[in-house]
Design a protein that fits this description.
Helix content is 83%, strand content 0%. With 174 residues, it is mainly alpha-helical.
Length: 174
Amino acid sequence: MTLANCLTFLRFVATGPAVYFTVRGALPFGFGFFLLGFTTDLLDGYLARTRREVTPMGKVLDPVADKLLFLGVFASFAVLGRISWEALAGYLVPQLGLGIGAAYLYLKRREIRSAEIPGKAAAGATALAAIALYWSPWGESFFWAAVGANFLSGVYYLLKLLRANGGAREGETR
């Protein structure tokens, strides 16, 4: 197992305590575990690329670990009443769409895509929203901005998928 994949697994491990402490209202401890998980996200991709250790397993597990960390933390803030359940549902919709699209690409073409600039921008907005929820009274505003960024990113990837499928059919005779 590569070092990058070990860091991804550490993110899975850090998610449990981040959620536990956050939902219990022990925000400094919750933030500490969130920060540990988020730091592994920053490092694992960098290490995988620079050490030439990008693996199919890492390409799959990294976004799953990210989504689990953020979903767990955001659900904790919904339990605490810091964000509404409707806001959490708004966050989930593009995440589910991206997951379904990624599964479709893998099943149809055996492709595992890496994140592109819109996805990375949405991830940055999502991280900023999580940090703001821990420390700022305007956390929910940051969260809604992240929801918007995730929707825009989802639309980008959906259009890209539709174009790719349309392009595959252009050569077909009807």
